[in-house]
Amino acid sequence: MKYIAPRWLPGGQLQTIWPALYARRVFGPRPEYRRERWDTPDGDFIDVDFLQDSVAADATRPLLVVFHGLEGSSRSHYCEAFADLARERGWACALPHFRGCSGEINRGPRAYHSGDHAEIGWMLQQLRVHHQGPLMAVGVSLGGNALLRWAAEVGTDAARSADAVAAVCSPIDLAAGGHAIGRGFNRLVYTRMFMRTLVPKALQKLAQHPGLFDRQALLAARDLYAFDNVFTAPVHGFRNTEDYWLRASAKPLLHRIRIPALVVNARNDPFVPAGSLPGMREVGRHVTLWQPPHGGHVGFPRGLPPGHVRAMPDAVGGWLAEHSGAQGQHGAQSPHG
Fold this sequence. Notes:
The longest helix is centred in the middle third of the chain and has 25 residues, at about 185-210. The chain folds into 2 domains: about 10-175 and about 255-325, Alpha/Beta hydrolase fold, catalytic domain (Rossmann fold), CATH 3.40.50.1820; about 175-250, no CATH class. An 8-stranded mixed β-sheet has the order 1-2-4-3-5-6-7-8, sandwiched between helices. The protein has helices at about 10-20, 75-90, 115-130, 140-155, 175-180, 185-210, 215-220, 225-235, 240-250, 310-325, and strands spanning about 35-40, 45-50, 65, 90-95, 135-140, 165-170, 260-265, 285-290. It is α/β, with parallel strands linked by helices. Helices cover about 35% and strands about 15% of the residues.
């Protein structure tokens, strides 16, 4: 991926914050969605938003599936940018929400986590049942780590559900990412931002399921390490934060992936230390690494102020189309540079 950051947005922090708050997300009308609620095998539900243009779509045309990041949704800037890309190329697009992220708290005694590969697999299976055309999946940040974990866990069986996958700015070494977000500026800004929504949602979950975790310990948590130790890890079957970060990380398993997989990480990402990124010797032949020097965390802004965030979706979408058989199927090239 050839990416050059605009001169007016230097550094990983600005390339992360400005695109999320101010850059243009789309080049056409803001994506309109139709929501479906799916009942899960364990008696819970997830909500999936479909690009309105693709509701009555031909089931043989390419389908792009977008998994959001921590506390994201189909309205996150990167999700809208990918939906805009799908609309422009004539693809169908589905944007599943992890449990509790669609605007309504889920019912079960659980939420979601970075290694939620079984959930990813189940959602892809449901989409594949109703879609015969090329199916491409992209996961952003947390969603990308979970997507790669799924591809690695199921090996050759992944091809039954997806033709190609991509992970964008994913902390595939969760310990490195977890420690990075808990220090300095990251702790003051991003940690506080995530905790503002994670803690109230966890308390809602405790109200639903009394005794699920220690309420006072949660209220005392000041960073994601402590939050994961009190809530994420024990609720989802891990011993503690260290066990969760170790067992949920995709990096050690990348060599087991057997479908085309793209792993994109900017080397100035504030959340993902460059030193924690994999090298070619750590991945198998099915994995392509793109590690541009700039881009921030899910930023990759381009253009004159206020800029836009289509550069990364365009590049990732082009790669997915090429490696999934979607190239040329309702697949006009994007004009955006």
